[in-house]
Structure formats: C-alpha cells, structure tokens
Amino acid sequence: MVRDILTADRSKRTSGALRPQLHTRFFQTGQKGIGRGKRGNRCAPFLWDSGDRAKKAVSSENFWKFYDAFRAAVDPDRAVAEVETDLYGTPDNVDGAPAWTAYTRDGIFQFEGLYLDGYIDQKIRFLARDDEILKVEEMVSDEIVYENAWISILRKDSDGLYRKYPEGISGKGVLKDESEISGQIGDLYLKGGTPKRLVLKKEKITGTVLAVRDTEIEIDGYGSVPLADQFKIYRTYGVLREQQKKDILVGYHMQEFVVADGKICAALTTEKTGYRHDPRAYHDERI
Description:
Low-confidence stretches: 1-40, 280-287
Order of helices and strands: EHHEEEEEEHEEEEEEEEE
Number of strands: 16
Number of helices: 3
Distance between the termini: 30 Å
Shape: elongated
Largest sheet: 7 strands, mixed
Radius of gyration: 24 Å
Strand content: 35-45%
Mean pLDDT: 77
C-alpha cells in the first residue's frame, strides 16, 4: 500500500456550467471593446453572426480557440491558471474518494464532466480556476514520483485515502522482501503506472519540539531543521491517517522525524498527547 494523501482548500468552488456563461459574457461585453487596443479586438475572429451559422453548434476546437482569446482579453490577473502536476488518483482507483475528485501533487481538484482516469500516474497540464479543472491540455510525461509516501503492507484499519498496487511493490521487482519496506517512508518512482524504483528514507531523529515554523521545525538537540518541499505528517498509532502541521504540538515529544539530505521529509506521530511538556518550548511560534 502506498499512502500519499493531499489536501487543499475547498472554500472556493466554480460552476461546471462554463460554456454558456462564457458565451453570454462575451456577447454582452464584446461590443464594448473587450480586447480592443493597438492589437484590435482579439476575440473578433470568433464572433458569430445572427444568420444560419448562429443556429449551428460550435465545435470543441473552435470553442477553445475562442476561450483562449477571451481569457487573454478579460483575465489579466490569470484567475484561470495553467497547472502542471502529477495526477495520483480519481474515484476510479482511490477507495472512498468523493465523485469527480482528483488527487494531485499540488492538492485536490474537482473535474466534473471531464475524463481523467486515463491520466492516472502521469504528469499532466490543465487549466483550472480555484480548485476546478476546466480542461486537460496534454499529458506531459508517464513518469512520476510519490514523494515521502508511507509504504506498508495493506492495513485494514487505515483511514482516509490510499493507493494499492494489487501485485505489490515487491511483485514488480522493486524490492524482494515486503517486510523490509513495510512501515517506511520513501520515494516511489513509476513509469506507465508501474513501480520501477523505491528509495527508502530510514534515518530518523527524535526530541522535544521547541518550535514549528513555515519552513522548519526546531527540535531539542538538533536545532532548526528545514522541511522538505513535499513534507508529510502521518499518524501511525491506532488508525493510520495523514495529519496537518498544526498536529505537531510544541513542547511535546510525540513524533519521529524522517530526514534525508539535511531536511525533514516526514513526521510520524507515534503516540497520543502525553505529559512530557517542555517549558523551554516557544509557544508563541506554534502553528
């Protein structure tokens, strides 16, 4: 089992009824000079007349040409952004995932009305507004990496989302002994959806947490240690689940920290809140 949960702010949502809204806005604003200037009206080639052609459906190709021109004219702040990321899962391969939910390296997105299952375990480029995918532009690469993932033999008491490879990582020749990889943090490299290489990160440090900051954690005996870009936090006791940075309690000794190349890759919460509070902790810096 490979566990690599990604979270995102879902407070902002966009409507899936994109095309009718765009057409309405364009016809309402096009005559007022949207896109006009030294280069003229960039949307003009896509204006439809009121004759017979107005009754015909617009092809997908022409719609997206229109949309690109429209976006360039009215979206200077790039509210619609181009995103290049790794697609880890959809409801097709992630047990318990809500409908139309995509899990990526850069967070959770919604993709209502689109087809993404064929892009799982690939690097893709798409257009998105807030957390809503509007259009998949292309597949960039079929090689991706699950960074700082929790690797283990499948646990029935796991809570949340996980990826399971039916044949097992060892069955793909990455490692021969599952007991060697179970309960470890590692980077899992895939090509074409098949595990090809696993880099385990076995070095751990422990100590009382003295401060938690945006880019580092201060640990008694180790000082301030920087966080890796894909830093993860897993609760390993009871029900296995991913946690947030706020779950690292300042003044307590509850986590093991997995380190590699001088950075903390993952924090493993191994016990419930105890009574080992340290008065030296900087409470004003707790997140």
